[in-house]
């Protein structure tokens, strides 16, 4: 299976380090092969000559400056590292060049070698506060012109120093000191599958019983089954029909509920009047 990204000639790392040592001499502090890539650590003041040699020297030929990145190590005396990422198109190889500095000592600009470095150096200055000598347009590029501080420093507060909002009174965007409407919440790191032990605001509504006619997430089949389980069930009497009557209040009744209805003669009450049937008592 092919790699998702174009592979480069990592097998050239060893000979690249040997060529670099012979080319740079005392300007090279260290050269290592880390995670399959070559990392060069050079003197800060010799960065321009170093990158020029890496670009023009036969056997190296790193024609393109792909990126300039910044790293902050607050525990170091020179806390910042500026990393130049180079690409050789002819050799299909990459390497990184590292220089160390702080927020006072400037790094020589490499805009004379690659003009694109002007924008990249402005980004490092904006986010870390690293100065570059020789850059004629060293201004902020990502944050606002009135921004205070450098956001990617490890000691920069997460909330910043000022916040921006639109003022209806002044009809423009204004800046004001950061004001937190509430304290930082205390989050627990309990497994989400187990659930929290406390009730979040608003969740108590789900615990209240709903009245009749209230919306319910259940479907119709589930509701019918639930109602059927709650309704009392009666055991039918032996011999009864599903829709048979259980009482006899008139002569039209069928005697339902009686096992042998219509077969057993009924006893006449003592005070019951005798009603003659058709044919009886006629012509008398």
Write a structural description.
With 284 residues, this protein is of the alpha/beta class. It has a domain at 10-133: Beta Polymerase, domain 2, CATH 3.30.460. The chain is built from four helices and nine strands, in the order αββαββββαβββα. A five-stranded mixed sheet has the order 1-2-5-4-3. A hairpin with a 4-residue loop joins strand 4 (80-88) and strand 5 (93-101). The longest helix has 12 residues, at 13-24. The N and C termini lie far apart (120 Å).
Question: How would you summarize what this structure contains?
Answer:
The chain is 16% helix and 20% strand.
Write the layout of secondary structure elements.
Layout: H1 13-24, E1 28-34, E2 37-42, H2 47-56, E3 64-72, E4 80-88, E5 93-101, E6 107-108, H3 117-128, E7 132-133, E8 162-167, E9 172-177, H4 220-230
Parallel strand pairs: 2-5, 6-7
Antiparallel strand pairs: 1-2, 3-4, 4-5, 8-9
């Amino acid at each position: 299976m092919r790699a998702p990204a174009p592979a480069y000639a990592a097998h050239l790392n060893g000979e690249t380090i040997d060529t670099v040592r012979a080319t740079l001499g005392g300007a090279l502090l260290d050269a290592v092969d880390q995670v399959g890539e070559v990392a060069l650590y050079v003197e800060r003041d010799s960065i321009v000559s170093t990158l020029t040699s890496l670009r023009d020297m036969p056997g190296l030929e790193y024609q393109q400056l792909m990126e300039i990145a910044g790293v902050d190590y607050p525990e170091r005396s020179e806390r910042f590292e500026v990393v130049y990422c180079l690409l050789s198109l002819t050799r299909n190889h990459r390497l990184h060049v590292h220089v160390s500095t702080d927020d006072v000592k400037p790094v020589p600009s490499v805009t004379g070698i690659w003009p694109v470095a002007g924008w990249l150096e402005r980004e490092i200055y904006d986010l870390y506060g690293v100065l570059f000598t020789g850059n004629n347009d060293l201004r902020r590029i990502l944050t606002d012109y009135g921004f205070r501080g450098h956001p990617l420093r490890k000691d920069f507060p997460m909330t910043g120093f000022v916040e921006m909002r639109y003022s209806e009174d002044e009809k423009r965007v204004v800046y004001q000191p950061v004001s937190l409407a509430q304290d930082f919440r205390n989050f627990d790191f309990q497994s989400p599958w187990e659930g929290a032990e406390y009730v979040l605001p608003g969740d108590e509504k789900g615990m209240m019983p709903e009245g009749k006619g209230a919306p319910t997430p259940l479907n119709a089949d589930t509701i019918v089954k639930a109602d059927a389980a709650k309704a009392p069930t009666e055991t039918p009497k032996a011999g009864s029909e599903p829709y048979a009557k259980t009482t006899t209040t008139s002569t039209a009744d069928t005697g339902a509920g009686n096992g042998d209805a219509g077969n057993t003669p009924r006893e006449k009450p003592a005070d019951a009047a005798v009603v003659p049937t058709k044919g009886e008592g006629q012509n008398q």
